Amino acid sequence: MKMTRYVRALLLLAAMPMSCSKDSGIFVTPSGNTEDVMVEIRASDGDGQYPWWSYNRDVTVVTDARDMFFGKVSMADGASASVAAVIDEAATTVWAFRGGQAETPFSGTVSFSVPSEQAKTGSGSAAADIAGNMCFCSSAGKFEPGQKSVSLDMVPVTAGIAFRIYDSGHSAEGESIRSITFKADGGVPVAGTATFGLTSGSGGSMTGGTDFLSLEISCEMTVMHGDGCPSEAGMAIFPVMGLTGKAEITTDRGTYEFILGSPADISAGELHTIDLDMSQADSSPKRKVGILGDSISTFRGYINAGYGAYYPAGDVTSVKDTWWYKLIYGFMPNATLDVNSSYAGTRVTTDPKYPGYDFVSRCLDFEDPDIIVIHGGTNDSNNGVVLGSYDWDADAESLNPDHFRTAYIRLIKTLKMHYGDIRIICIVGDRLNSGYADSIVEIASHFGIPCVNFQNDGDNIPKVSGSHPTSAGFDWMADKIWSQAKDYLK
What we know:
The protein is an alpha/beta fold. The protein contains seven helices and 27 strands. 42% of the residues are buried.
């Protein structure tokens, strides 16, 4: 850390008018007369001295704080000074000194606070955010009778935690971070006020301490895929040995919890980095899955009461036997069904037999999905629907709903337009003719959507009748979907 040379501040002392220029230090004289007394202020990073400032005034109060900082300095002789400062640069230090008359010992105390509620400035640097609450104090120094100068070495009081937030998979990729909270175990105070002696540099007991810190995000922070460019946020904390606790990250989707079980020793002035991989959270919001399908994905009681159902049938006697239930509740961690919009006999394209119930017409049935799995095309293939051509540029409403390729493209565009950054997975059934199967694969590839293809897997998927798998067939399907698309389903 280095001391900023450029300070712009307002210092207030009751009944004590004063002024200072833009680049000057900040001075007040609550009592006494110490002409020619020199106070030298130094701060060290362990490798050498930072630039120092010198002032020949009775009391020197220097604050370097981000936004608005309020501090109280109490002197041994009863004099006091209050300070409020607005600083252009992110804070690195906060300190206060008093040089009394030659025969008056240099003594006094200063209180430092780490707030439980902190705000991120948008600097993009965890170190800069933490620096706003980093505090330093004097290790020693007093005036002896007749002494005309004193040197004060600065030592750090607080430390910091820097969170590196990213997503190794796709659990929270693209979500906006709203707030971060850290709660320490065992009643360890991580926020509050501590008093330090200016003469001895020793710390007193912390008062009003709390065991949690909350960081409000006042800038745009997005969860990124991979740890190459993580979002970073920082919190100030008092030094502590063996720190454990729980971190919570709240996004626009929900709250992710991380248990920090490995004890961390955090020394004064130290920045301790903690990686938080959203895909490895100890708990996370339930991922809501929507199913859009035909008879293969139905089960009476779990679809709209007005929609036709094929299942239960054969040995698929429970909803737990279906492929989608096995996938959501058997493979996916922390997932739940949003809506199953499946209707027996329907096509992706329009169908006079089921007017208004094609896939595009039903694709807005969902409530609040995170993922939509599309299993369709079997009835289009069975009825020889015209394949048509690929039209990537037309608006969804302009695409022909009667041709398979344009209807499927219209379906994808409608879902994306209505649900935003929804994750979509396309399923190719094992009974589709090659033209329809290849079309789904091509369309999914164009939009960057995972596609699980069962076209050549008929022997692995036994049937109740026609295109309808048995419970064992659904087992095989769920397992393959999970194995090929788990990064998007987690």
